[in-house]
Design goal:
alpha/beta; Rossmann fold; five-stranded parallel β-sheet; 6 helices; 8 strands; 28% helix; 26% strand; binds adenosine-5'-triphosphate
Length: 200
């Protein structure tokens, strides 16, 4: 599978975030999207995932015959969980809509993420680190060939970061995109794309 970005430009009002970006992303590789705060990392990630349209140019998925959304799992600080659910309810819902395989029941998932909240605790009452671990766990557990992660270790403690680094190793067959300015996250990737190279 490939994501092929051809001459993509993105702006908000009169402000260009990136221009003339040509890049091919392939399965089996991991790409760090790097740049300073406000450079456009999240915007590029969303554009590549086809959550946001470029003003000019195209993003194509090679080797995908059906709905491209079903090829992607995405986790970001701004992505949302269903706050009114408990974790068992969230997992049942994700299995019901075919986002997760049926084997991801509460026991399997909590042992995968190495975090076992009370089964009756609402997600709205999870701490920010618990929330982030659940988002990452869901994204990693989904059997989808493209993994998009924005600042994946934000709010994670050292043990949770190490869990993520290890969990990512089992995903190396996927096409992985990580938007980050954390050295440890960038170092996980095989390739790197600097937004600053696409400003003029
Ligand atoms: N929906 C929007 N409307 C207007 N401007 C936006 C919108 N989304 C992003 N921007 C602007 O686009 C630029 C890039 O934002 P983006 O969030 O992609 O940067 P980033 O590199 O991910 O930043 P950070 O490292 O701080 O998370 C910023 O100037 C931001 O204000």
């Amino acid at each position: 599978m490939k994501i092929i970005a051809t001459g993509i430009h993105k702006k908000f009002r009169q402000e260009w975030v990136f221009k003339a970006l040509n890049y091919t992303f392939e399965s089996g590789k991991s790409y760090a999207i790097v740049g300073q705060n406000g450079a456009g990392k999240s915007t590029l990630l969303k554009t590549l995932a086809q959550y946001s349209l470029p003003n000019k140019g195209t993003v194509e998925f090679e080797g995908v015959s059906e709905n491209v959304n079903k090829q992607i799992s995405f986790a970001a600080p701004y992505s949302e969980l269903i706050e009114e659910f408990t974790l068992p309810e969230l997992l049942s819902f994700l299995i019901e809509i075919d986002f997760l395989d049926a084997r991801w029941d509460f026991n399997a998932f909590t042992s995968f993420i190495n975090l076992r909240p009370s089964e009756t605790k609402y997600i709205k009452n999870f701490s920010s680190g618990m929330r982030q671990k659940v988002k990452l766990g869901v994204a990693l557990a989904a059997d989808r060939p493209i993994l998009c992660l924005d600042e994946p270790t934000s709010n994670l403690d050292e043990a949770a970061k190490n869990w993520f680094y290890k969990a990512l190793e089992s995903q190396r067959h996927k096409l992985i995109l990580i938007a980050s300015n954390e050295k440890a996250e960038i170092d996980l990737c095989t390739d790197s794309l600097a937004i600053a190279d696409y400003k003029v």
